[in-house]
Specification:
The structure is a homodimer.
Chain A (H helix, E strand, L loop, with lengths): L6 H8 L3 H8 L7 H14 L5 H7 L5 E10 L2 E2 L4 H16 L3 E8 L7 H4 L5 E5 L8 H10 L3 E4 L9 E5 L1 H14 L5 E4 L7 H16 L9 E2 L5 H13 L6 E4 L2 H13 L9 E6 L2 H5 L5 E4 L2 H18 L5 E3 L2 E3 L5
Parallel strand pairs in A: 1-3, 1-4, 4-5, 5-6, 6-12, 7-8, 7-9, 9-10, 10-11
Antiparallel strand pairs in A: 1-2, 11-13
Chain A binds a DNA duplex through helix 2 and helix 4.
DNA sequence: GGTGCCTATACATACGTATTCAGCTGCCAT
DNA sequence: ATGGCAGCTGAATACGTATGTATAGGCACC
């Protein structure tokens, strides 16, 4: 393993100077076609690769984006969110298509704010995943803005002071899901979800649910609303609570698939058939939704579109200096549970 | 957003020279405690961060590892593998603990071999995920070895000529799963899996299955073995095939959870109870296994341990020049399906 | 009091690339 | 023939850090 070839070696081989090599490789139009060809041939021969450290030092950017997952701890990490995980592939591909590399990291709430990537020039900008609209984050995001760091957040959006936000149209998703249930004749539709600030999306889904009901001339009934977090256990518990209330229902709209699957298990246990007795619709389209029995009808967020929107917004922020928030469309995926 | 502070600015503020700043920050023992304190205070004040491009240029490494997912295309990517995805968090944390950053990328088989990260000094070493033991990869891996690139592969291992390999003890997992079924009195245990080179792990799982049978004085029956890929549809189809053969069975060991879940759906459809009529054991412990109904007994690979083993092996390769392959223990997770 | 040694710091330089500026060549118009 | 101009290329330099070598001061020892 001998010394790496440098642009000087390349220049010597191609019979030109080092600056010409640099220009040739970066596609500068001032270098003649034949010179460029000679340089490229030499590069091929020496298996020359630009040293990105030197390049990044000289230019002022690294052509690298950082992907930052929020986490409370190993067991409470945005890296466990299946939707985020499904965005990973598309993000990597989208970055590659734009000539960027992707750095991945996590950020603990408890730790100091060490978003060094942009500070230390390892990344030109940051994608933030798992940062809800918690107030706790505000000062950190504000500091980021203050530093002039380029970043884009996945979230419910709204607050354009804190950088651009990309998120799904949760309200419309809630509307579509509910309308689907209404269209199949259901009238007593329970809503399983929480309005906790930890899941701001759930509130929008609830709003869509209400809008659909009202559009059908119905009035949302608080008795049909049960608090539930996105977990199987919580879904089962919520169903138990619903039953305990003794209120009749012929459908369930769960604000997350995990909750929906838990509720389905609960229904199964008490012998209520799905969808004959109770139709169920979830939200997220996690992989287990398709594998559930019966397969779960759910609101699908498009991971590819989301990934692309995030990456392209960030690149725009990096290269053009600013970008805009976006709300992405969702799609109802009808399977057998409703 | 003014100019970034450099180590010279820091030196001026602390009243020392730039080299002293560099030494103070890197913990060089030759700098006195009081000087170091002054430098650190100045760094805090200026919010100084080492420029990793310049640092990487001067040193010969970037303290960055690249994580490379193999993919045939967007729909056939190692980034879709839930086990790999579950390693992500632990890998990130493990890298951080060792002071490394993690770059994530994909590699298409069809494209040229562009593992530029190490070539271009963006990464010091590479973790390869999703590279089975396909012969097609050999030349590429050999080239990597030839270049002196440091890398570690997740896989069945064995071929130590092609770099270190870290993998689960699939044979033992197959043995444990089968023994568990035997212990509960099952005697006719079907094996659902394929020996295709695309899934070399399956072959080891099959071997473990055979060893358990023989240890119990039974002889593996080829009639109980059905080819199946790791997908729900394939699992359902495999069960159909098994039924069509008209052979009696009281248990199923599927070489993957996806297959097992498909088979469970098939059993449900024809009214066979799980586990009363047929016990089912899977392999992988994907998230859907716990959510299945009944929850699936399966062989759990430890993503944290795997991630740690991969990262630490790679770091050892990078820093010490070489490393060794390892086979990681697996654990049977008993739920309700068997 | 000079020599030698040790500690802490400063000086100078190298890493490999991209860019600014200047220079060279040849061609066209005057 | 000469000035100007365009099209390419080369020389010099800057980017910010880390490190090898040199230097200044302090102390012990003979």
């Amino acid at each position: 393993m001998q010394r790496r070839p440098t642009s000087f070696d390349l220049a010597a081989l191609a019979g030109v100077s080092q600056p010409t090599v640099s220009r040739a490789l970066s596609g500068n139009p001032s270098v003649s076609a034949e010179t460029r060809a000679r340089v490229l041939a030499a590069a091929e021969q020496l298996n020359y690769k630009v040293d990105k450290n030197a390049s990044g030092l000289r230019r002022k950017h690294s052509r690298t984006l950082a992907l930052l997952f929020f986490e409370e701890g190993p067991d409470e990490s945005a890296l466990l969110n299946p939707f985020y995980l499904s965005m990973l592939g598309p993000m990597v591909r989208c970055c590659a298509a734009h000539g960027y590399d992707l750095l991945i990291s996590t950020q603990q709430l408890s730790s100091d704010w060490h978003v060094d990537y942009e500070d230390s020039r390892k990344a030109d900008g940051i994608v933030l995943l798992g940062y809800g609209d918690y107030l706790e984050y505000r000062p950190r995001l504000e500091k980021l803005v203050g530093q002039g760091t380029h970043f884009v957040r996945w979230g419910a959006g709204g607050d354009s002071e804190l950088g651009a936000t990309i998120g799904s149209d949760n309200e419309q998703g809630g509307f579509d899901a509910t309308q689907h249930l209404l269209a199949s004749g259901r009238r007593a539709i329970a809503f399983l979800g929480t309005a906790s600030s930890a899941f701001p999306e759930f509130l929008d889904r609830w709003r869509g649910y209400c809008r659909a009901l009202r559009a059908a001339g119905l009035v949302p009934d608080e008795a049909l609303r049960v608090d539930a977090e996105p977990s199987e256990a919580s879904g089962r518990a919520a169903l138990g609570q619903l039953i305990a209330r003794g209120i009749a229902f012929d459908a369930i709209f769960a604000a997350s698939d995990m909750t929906a699957i838990g509720a389905m298990h609960g229904l199964e246990k008490i012998g209520r058939r799905i969808p004959e007795d109770v139709a169920v619709v979830g939200f997220d389209d996690i992989s287990a939704a398709r594998l559930a029995s019966p397969p779960l009808t759910t609101v699908t967020q498009d991971p590819r579109g989301a990934a692309q929107a995030l990456v392209e917004a960030l690149i725009e922020a990096v290269e053009a200096g600013s970008t805009r928030s976006r709300r992405l469309p969702v799609r109802l995926t009808v399977r057998e549970s409703a």
